[in-house]
Amino acid sequence: MNKKFLTISIAAYNVEKYIKETLDSITIPMIMDDIEVLIVDDGGTDNSYNLCKQYEEKYPNTFKVFHKENGGYGSVYNYNIVKASGKYFKLLDGDDWFDKDGLIKLVDTLKNTDADVVFTSFNNCYDNNISEGISYNSKYIDKLINIFEFKINNGLPMHAITYKTEILKKSKMQLKEHVPYTDSMYITMPMAYVDTILVKDFIVYNYRLGLPNQTVNVDVRIKNFNIAEEIYIDLVNYYNEIDVSNGKKSVYLKDRIAASLLDHIVVALKMPTKKENIDYIIKFEKRIKSMSKDIFDDMINLDRKASKILKLLRLSNYKAYYFLSFIIKIIIK
């Protein structure tokens, strides 16, 4: 069997409406020998598993399909990282898809680099067939960069990231199971073990937005507010516990965690405007400040609208809450 340069991990939970488009975007003859695709039907109840098995039967050297009890998004990563044999590792949601030309370019890139992580551009895809391409500062493109030289203000989502598999295994990261927002752990924690980053300016991932129960939807984020808080607090604890002999407290890592905490406060500001919500924000802010003054300060230093609003909130001793919560509902999507 040929050496696999890329493992693609797919979480397939009740995605029969989309899974054929997802898998067809990977079924590219010129790279099939270079990739392995590990698909986990995570306790689904529709026909996703049977549809995936058709690809395994046709391409047994590339596709591997598994079924297990539902454990959530994090459990699929935990399940597949143990099985991964590719030099690099990339996640793909069962309702998203790859750009075929971009995937070919990615595999070619992975054959010719030894970077710890490769960042690529991606599309945000909306219901009205409009796509928004997300790329990076041109100063980083096609360069092998040390993580201490790398700064992207908002951090990068999982759609942009292809990790070297040995970095993920070295990190010993286990994502939480049965809870959402574990992607915040995935895009943050392994970065403590990264030395080198390669940035490429071609689109690989198409991220489908607008689905009713999507965890990025504001209503869903409000519903899962307390769960998200636990994840973000874990990230601050992780930052505090990193041993410099084993990991790196890079500016990127600090910014990434600060951005997650800032997003959490934005959700609180989007909730119905009332006293208990500002009381929560004040308490949350005090907790973060007591845990990490560096991250607390960084939250208002990011180049984001929300950072400026949070700075005003702090300067007013949080008395501007009622005005600023109204503003943020309008200007922060």
Structure keywords:
globular, ten-stranded mixed sheet, single chain, 42% helix, alpha/beta, Spore Coat Polysaccharide Biosynthesis Protein SpsA, Chain A, 2 domains, 333 residues
Architecture overview:
The chain folds into two domains: 6-208, Spore Coat Polysaccharide Biosynthesis Protein SpsA, Chain A, CATH 3.90.550.10; 218-331, no CATH class. It has helices spanning 19-24, 48-58, 73-83, 100-111, 165-171, 183-186, 218-223, 225-241, 251-270, 275-291, 293-298, 305-315, 321-331, and strands at residues 6-12, 35-42, 63-68, 88-93, 97-98, 117-125, 131-134, 144-146, 161-164, 196-208. The protein starts with 5 loop residues before the first strand and ends with a helix. It contains 13 helices and ten strands. The protein is globular and about 65 Å long. The chain is α/β, with parallel strands linked by helices and 333 residues long. The protein is 42% helix and 19% strand. Strands 1, 2, 3, 4, 5, 6, 7, 8, 9 and 10 form a ten-stranded mixed β-sheet that branches.
CATH level 3 topology of the largest domain: Spore Coat Polysaccharide Biosynthesis Protein SpsA, Chain A
The total number of structural domains is 2
- Average residue pLDDT: 91
Order of helices and strands: EHEHEHEEHEEEEHHEHHHHHHH
Give the CA-based shape.
Answer: globular
DSSP, total strands: 10
Poorly predicted regions are none
Describe the SSE topology.
Elements: E1 6-12, H1 19-24, E2 35-42, H2 48-58, E3 63-68, H3 73-83, E4 88-93, E5 97-98, H4 100-111, E6 117-125, E7 131-134, E8 144-146, E9 161-164, H5 165-171, H6 183-186, E10 196-208, H7 218-223, H8 225-241, H9 251-270, H10 275-291, H11 293-298, H12 305-315, H13 321-331
Parallel strand pairs: 1-2, 1-4, 2-3, 6-10
Antiparallel strand pairs: 4-9, 5-10, 6-7, 6-9, 8-10
Helix pairs in contact: 8-9, 12-13
